[in-house]
Amino acid sequence: MRILLFVVLLLSGCAVPKHPRSHVNVPPPPVVTDLHSYIAGINYAITTQLFDADTYAGKTCDVRLDLDEKGQLTDFHVLTGDPSLCTAASDALKNATFPAPPSPEIHKVLTHPVLHFAPEK
Question: What does pTM read for this prediction?
Answer without folding.
Answer: 0.75
